[in-house]
Each structure stands twice: as structure tokens, then as C-alpha cells.
Amino acid sequence: MASGKRISVSIRPLHYADIPACARITSDAFSVDPHTIVKGLGREPYDMYTISRSDFLNTLHRKTCIYVKAVDDETGEIVGHAGWSFRGLDPELIPWVGPGDAKPEAEEQAEGQEKNDEPKGEDRKDDRNAEENSIDRLHALEDADMQYWLSNLVPTDTPCMFVRGLIVSPQYQSRGVGSALMRHGNAIADNLGLTVWVHSSHQAYEAYKKFGFETMRELDLDLDEYAPRAPREGEEVMGDKGSRKWGRYVIRYMKRLPREGGTAH
Predict the structure, then answer these.
(1) Degrees to nearest 5, angle at CA 142 with 167 and 237
(2) I need a surface site. Which of 30, 149, 173, 206 has the fewest CB within 10 A?
(3) Which branch of life, at top level (predicted)?
(4) What's the whole-model pTM score?
(5) Could you state, in order of their start, the residue ranges of all structural domains in the chain?
């Protein structure tokens, strides 16, 4: 178990060779998230390792996305990662570095199958003959709310940044890693004069609030309304484990205004 002692980390560009480690960090971090556990009870696979790995492979090369890793200065281990995408900004202004290695040949994606830089709901098969179940309804609700956020709350005529993800390995949480990643992204936004938007998990809300993000919209979910079964012994829930309830989970759409003195227009 981690000691809780703060560690020194370096923020470095993320490479293709780092993808398996970073995808595993994402999977481990979300494995104790009740919202993710419930979504994994649906008929469609919801494997956070696969989702994270696919997103990296599809977007790591794009010059409208910045990805970094947090490396423990003492051990050289990757202990966290983060990514941001940009909308409406001249690409020449984006401080893109990109991966320092080549994309594995076996992972080359067919042209035209890349994902958009903006956050959006997960892609799933359109099975019109299958009866919609409760997890389908949960996905549909979240997808619709995400699209409302992007269409109605985020100005389309103003350049901005989106947090694509900011994940810390469970063994290194509360040790300064997340703060280092947060400061890195905020510094980019301040330098460019950009508002940063994030679709925050329930657990990350306080951290984003600490670093200047303000809640603009909430989606309050009663997980028990959608879960096909009650939580089993040992599974993480939002409240008392003895209640046999998953509990309420709040997704927050948040923004952070840039400090004065930015350069982007």
C-alpha cells in the first residue's frame, strides 16, 4: 500500500510505447468507480483498458491533442497521465510535441475511422432488434446530456480546451501526482488564454474545484435505477456498503477561466 508521502514527478510527452501502462492505470483507477462498475453490467463490453487504449491509438498523433505522462523521478515509473484537446484554436499555437516513437504497424487504423477530438458518448453497435435494457438507457441519457453540454454550454465561436482525461494510478493518489498534471494543463490554458472544460467524475470534482473549475451543469444519477442487480460483497458503492445500494452519482460539467494575460484570440 502506498505511504501517502508526496513524490516528485516529471511531466513528459506520452509515447506509443507508454500506451499499455497508461491504459492499465485508467483501468485500475476506474475499477473501483461505482458508476463504471454499473455501466459494465450491460450487454455490451465496457472495458476501460480497451476504451483507453483505443482512444490513445486513435488520437495520440493528432496535433489538436496534447498527452503527457507523470513519471516518478525516483523510480522512473509512470504514475499518471493526462490529455487535453483544443477547439477553434489555430493549430500553430498549440504547443504540441507528440509521441517520440512510431505507431506500431499492427495498430494502424483505417483512414476515416478516427475519433473526434471533443468528448462524446461511447460508440456502441446499433442493434435495433434487441430490446433496450437499463444500461442502454443509462448510456443514452449520458450521451444526450453530453451533447447538450457541448451544444448549449460550450461556446462554439470561442477557442477552448477540453480535458480528455486526467488519471492517477490508485497507488499514487493523494501524493501530488494529480496536482502536477492539473497545473501542467492549466499553465497551457493560461498561456493561450483559453477556458478549459471538463466532464468530471463524482470523485474528481473536489480536485477540479480546488484548481479553479466551476460547475456549470450537473447530471445526478440514481445508479440503482439502472443497475440490473444489487452490488455484491466487496464491490464499491457510493454510500454504505451494507445498504446493498449503489447510491447516487453526480457527473459535473465544469469550466475554468484563464488567468489574465493570455495570448490566444
Answers:
(1) 60
(2) 206
(3) Eukaryota
(4) 0.87
(5) 9-91+132-256
Instruction: Report the Cα 59 to chain-centroid distance in Å.
Output: 14
Number of H helices, E strands in the chain: 7, 7
* Identity of the residue numbered 170: P
pLDDT tens sequence across 122-143? 444 444 333 458 999 999 999 9
* Burial zone of 133 (CB within 10 Å; 0-12 exposed, 13-18 middle, 19+ buried): middle
- What's the farthest any 2 CA atoms get from each other in the chain? 55
Q: In whole angstroms, what is the distance from residue 30 CA to residue 15 CA?
A: 22
pLDDT above 90 for 118: no
Helix (H) or strand (E) holding 50, with range, is: helix 48-59
The phi-psi region of residue 50 (left if phi > 0; otherwise alpha if psi is between -120 and 50; otherwise beta) is: alpha
Predicted confidence (pLDDT) at residue 197 exceeds the cutoff of 90: yes
Q: Which CATH superfamily is domain 9-91+132-256 in?
A: Gcn5-related N-acetyltransferase (GNAT) (3.40.630.30)
Please state whether beta strands 195-200 and 160-168 pair in parallel, antiparallel, or not at all (unpaired).
Answer: parallel
Kindly report the length of the chain: 265
CA nearest 29: which of 140, 231, 174?
Answer: 174
